[in-house]
Amino acid sequence: MKAVIHEIQRFANIVPLSVFHATMKDTELMGYSIPKGTMVIQNMRTVLMEEGQWKFPHEFNPENFLNDKGEFVKPEAFMPFSTGPRVCLGEGLARMELFLTMVTLLRKFKFIWPEDAGEPDFTPIFGITLTPKPYRMKIQLRSNQ
Ligand code: HEM
């Protein structure tokens, strides 16, 4: 379950440009000089889908978070909440909510892609956040409930 949730966050890249920042002083980074006051915009995709960091960088596959023994591992490049001193303050709460909501829904219901719906279109709607296009889904109460 943890691997699935992490993979959803990786693949969906919900906050694609994080929050904009600015340098507070003249800064040297990997040979580049960035003057004081320069706006810095992160591109989260560059780490969340970086080749060499993931077993399957461009496809949805929870094995990106599993080792050879099937145990959960979190690669360093997983940073949908950003990183550093301004990392998302709500990360702990968001992770708890994602786990509780997903487990509750999946224990109670089956989510079935309708046969006549064709292939899912993963192209996101781009804004401050990336959101999915509207889609239809069949939701069935599990028989053991
Ligand atoms: C899946 C859900 C969430 C994602 C992917 C997410 C992602 C992010 C990202 C990428 C940033 C920018 C960090 C940076 O400036 O480098 C951020 C900042 C922030 N987030 Fe979230 N967030 C989520 C949920 C939440 C929730 C539930 C809360 C509050 C209850 C929250 C509160 C904040 C705050 C206060 C900041 C600003 C932190 C600062 O500038 O010091 N976030 N978030």
From TrEMBL:
<dbReference type="InterPro" id="IPR017972">
    <property type="entry name" value="Cyt_P450_CS"/>
</dbReference>
<dbReference type="GO" id="GO:0020037">
    <property type="term" value="F:heme binding"/>
</dbReference>
<dbReference type="GO" id="GO:0016712">
    <property type="term" value="F:oxidoreductase activity, acting on paired donors, with incorporation or reduction of molecular oxygen, reduced flavin or flavoprotein as one donor, and incorporation of one atom of oxygen"/>
</dbReference>
<dbReference type="InterPro" id="IPR036396">
    <property type="entry name" value="Cyt_P450_sf"/>
</dbReference>
<keyword id="KW-0503">Monooxygenase</keyword>
<keyword id="KW-0560">Oxidoreductase</keyword>
<dbReference type="InterPro" id="IPR001128">
    <property type="entry name" value="Cyt_P450"/>
</dbReference>
<comment type="similarity">
    <text>Belongs to the cytochrome P450 family.</text>
</comment>
<feature type="binding site" description="axial binding residue">
    <location>
        <position position="88"/>
    </location>
    <ligand>
        <name>heme</name>
    </ligand>
</feature>
<keyword id="KW-0479">Metal-binding</keyword>
<dbReference type="GO" id="GO:0006082">
    <property type="term" value="P:organic acid metabolic process"/>
</dbReference>
<dbReference type="Pfam" id="PF00067">
    <property type="entry name" value="p450"/>
</dbReference>
<dbReference type="InterPro" id="IPR002401">
    <property type="entry name" value="Cyt_P450_E_grp-I"/>
</dbReference>
<keyword id="KW-0408">Iron</keyword>
<dbReference type="GO" id="GO:0005737">
    <property type="term" value="C:cytoplasm"/>
</dbReference>
<protein>
    <recommendedName>
        <fullName>Cytochrome P450</fullName>
    </recommendedName>
</protein>
<dbReference type="GO" id="GO:0006805">
    <property type="term" value="P:xenobiotic metabolic process"/>
</dbReference>
<dbReference type="InterPro" id="IPR050182">
    <property type="entry name" value="Cytochrome_P450_fam2"/>
</dbReference>
<keyword id="KW-0349">Heme</keyword>
<dbReference type="GO" id="GO:0005506">
    <property type="term" value="F:iron ion binding"/>
</dbReference>
